[in-house]
Amino acid sequence: MRMIQALLTTALFFSASLLLAQAPGPPSDSVSIRAFDRIVTPSGEVKECLIADPNPTLGRDLNVKIRTVTTVLKAAEIKEIIPRRSAEEAYANWVKWLRRESRSATGSLKQGPMRAAAELALAQWCRTPHVKLNGKRPMEAMAHNHLVMAARADAGNALVYPYLLASFIRQNKLGQANLTALNEEVELYLRAQAAGYSSPDMDYRIAIIMSRSLRVPGGAVKYFQRVLAAGEESSAANKAQRRKAREVLSSVYMDRGEVEKALGLYDELIQPQLTPDLNFEGFYNSAVIYTRIGGAKNTALARDRFAKASELQPGFAEIELRLAALDYAAGQYKEAGKRLKAYLARVPGDLHATIDSAMVDITQGLFWKAGQALQKALDETGEPLVGMRARLGLGSIEELRGNLPQAEAHYRSAVSLAESNPLASLMLANILVGQGRTDEAGELVAAVRSDYVDSQALFGVCSRLQALMENSSGDAAQSSVHLEFAVDVSPEDPAVLEAAGLAFLRQGKLEQGLGYLSRANTLQVGRPATLNGLGYYNYIQGHHREAAAFFDQALAALKKNTSSKKEAPSAEARSAKVYATNARNLIRDMERLQVWVDEFESSVEGSIDGWSEVELYGIDVGLVDSNIVFKGQQTGADDKADGESGIRLMRVYRSRDLERVAVRVRIDSGRVAPFLRLSGPDGERSALAALSIFRDFEGRVRVRIRTAKGDWVEPVEPTEEEAATIKGASYTANVTWEDDRKFHTLEIRKARSEKGSLRSNMFDLYFDGEKVAQGVQVPGLSTKYQLSVMARTDAIGNDYSVTVDNFKVFRAKGKRK
Phi and psi for 73 in degrees, rounded to 5? Predict the structure, then answer.
């Protein structure tokens, strides 16, 4: 087969050469290149020389240089002078002949095929190395023009197009040539095909111009299909062309929703009779398509095909990146991190992979480590896309830490680095919504939607942002509509399903919310917010045991995803943990505790629903919509700059009647430290002894103990090494009360022994369900307690406002006899 092909090629070459030799042309003497002058003597001898005289004529002696000798030739020895001819002069003679023969009535080039043959012959002369020019090409720069004119003279001339294609590839470099030149090139090829000439090389050139330069990949489809139909996959010829054809075709098919066609391109390559490199192409690219489709089944197929591709080419590092992306999407962050680390060990200079690794660290709460990597990538690159991604990562860290203005600054920098990339604008819009600036966010979302009207993925993201904006403005119904749009676009995205499910739960549409959350939990197990939503659904339905199981799963997932004790969890993780902890404790307490809740419903002079007002240093304490509000400007003598104002419960509790006490408090404004205090009753020796949990002026949640002698002390803050062995009162966590204008819960619980029994006069303290300190014993405190909720500031003239939502006292249920 190969021998026959070689013979056919040789035959075509010689037939082409013969046709060129028979092509019409000027007299050979008029276009011959002569490096030397020629002098013909009367005897007929021809002497090659260089005539030194500027205007040599017959009848005069001539100064000439023959080789290295300069001499004088007498006029009698000169019969004829044939001057030298440069390549430019020969070319000019050829062009004059072409014009004359094309225009005159008796010219030989009136017919198209003859003119095409003559133009092709001149083009070949221009580009062929010439012996008289020491191997240089006579007029190489003009060859392309004559090839074009040959194609225009006769569109069906098969001989011209292999040369014209090669010339256009050199002349019109993709990414550099202007659109006018590329359109002219394509027009010539289309004329050729209309006249009956075509070839796989021509089809490929048309397709690649359309898809890459003219930005009409749809128009390139039929030409890429011809490229694939023309060649055998086992043939080595034009393999790169067929690979590119499959790449573009699969992308077009996917955009059209023709998934089976896209997969078919690569499934055809997974055949044992084909070469390993084709098998690899089939496995790898079909795996990429399955990844793009998404869903549990397709993801499993993608993993399987990536594994088979890796067996064929173990050194292809890109597969690790693809698998890392699958791990990340499945919530397997540690596995994703390991793969990225292995990839970077092989390709250490890949800044995009470095940023991917940092994003995985961010998801696991390793903010400091991720920040260092992102800042290094930012410092090392001048590439806008890398800089944009690094800025987005740094912004994400600040956003998760709750530092929204700093996050906004990073996102704005990202937008300026890559204005054509919509991701930065969308993340900026999201942070603006978080700050209540929905008008600004709406403008950004509208701009992205108008610029990318054909992108379903971006439509889905914009719908989610629109839902957030409408939810913040109180339009829950319209918010749900946009979330359903987002689900339609991304039905296999657990984050989208989770957002929609939680929104419907908040609206009381429980079954609709359950459907979305169940799908999200099936697609990605272990999403804390999804598990909390499922727990809430079961709690509302009265299925307390099932609800508790979901809340326990949420807490386990949060613990698993926390990789470092040094890094503070993200705001999202903290919120999920607080919700799950409080909900789980509520369900457990329903089984063993009875609860007294003071909703603050009435007031009389000097007291509020059984609470007395305490030391009002310019602070008004009053009942507002079933809440108690401490509000005003601190007054009094200098020694009362931190005077405490608040409420104290008139009722005295016995130790056996109190197992836990909790209050919900919100800081509305000002520099203020609210606290919950348990102390000895007024008028008794133990009145000075007290235990407080409070927010200090730096935002930390702290614990203070006052002994019967009036001394204030705090629990010990142990190191990691001391934490396991320390005895007595100690802090268990460094907890922050964010400046977020939300209600938070301060709680004092009686401590329990390892066997679960209550310990006398020993307490554990909690903030939003998270333990702050443990094993706290208050010297001098008796078996009777008085409860108070107070606030203080640190300077005369400070304004502040604090709202107390409700107060709960828990005690064990009586045993049935």
Answer: -100, 125
Under 8 Å between Cβ of 733 and 578: no
CB 760, CB 654: distance < 8 Å: no
How far, rounded to the nearest angstrom, does the alpha carbon of residue 535 sit from its chain's CA centroid?
A: 31
Contact 476, 507 (CB under 8 A): yes
Instruction: Return the pLDDT at 619.
Output: 85
pLDDT score of 17:
42
Please give the average per-residue pLDDT across 55-80, as a whole number: 88
pLDDT, tens only, 603-651: 555 556 567 777 678 888 888 887 888 898 888 755 667 788 887 777 7
Taking the model in full, what pTM does it have?
0.59
The chain-wide mean pLDDT, for the chain, equals 82
Taking the C-alpha atoms of residue 681 and residue 776, their distance in angstroms, rounded to an integer, is 19
Place of tokens 């909720």: 789
The closest of 666, 648, 683 to 739, measured between CA atoms, is: 666
Question: Distance between CA atoms of 491 and 461, rounded to whole angstroms?
Answer: 13
Angle 807-810-811 (CA atoms, 0-180°, nearest 5)?
A: 150
Query: Where does the pLDDT of residue 236 fall: very low under 50, low under 70, confident under 90, or very high at 90 and above?
Result: low
Q: What tokens does 481 get?
A: 């509509």
Q: Quote the tokens at residue 634.
A: 């601190």
pLDDT, tens digit, 9 for 90 and up, residues 278-297: 899 999 999 999 998 887 78
- Give the CA dihedral 501, 506, 507, 512, nearest 10 degrees: 20
Q: Which residues pair with 673 in a beta bridge?
A: 792
What does 63-121 look like in DSSP terms, one character per residue? EEEETTEEEEE-GGG-SEEE--B-HHHHHHHHHHHHHHHHHSTT-TT-SHHHHHHHHHH
Helix-helix angle 510-523:528-540, to 10 degrees = 150
Phi, psi of 148 (to 5 degrees): -60, -45
Strand ordering across the sheet containing 46-51: 69-73, 62-66, 46-51, 37-40, 80-82
Residues in the chain: 817
Backbone φ and ψ for 806, nearest 5 degrees, come out as -155, 170
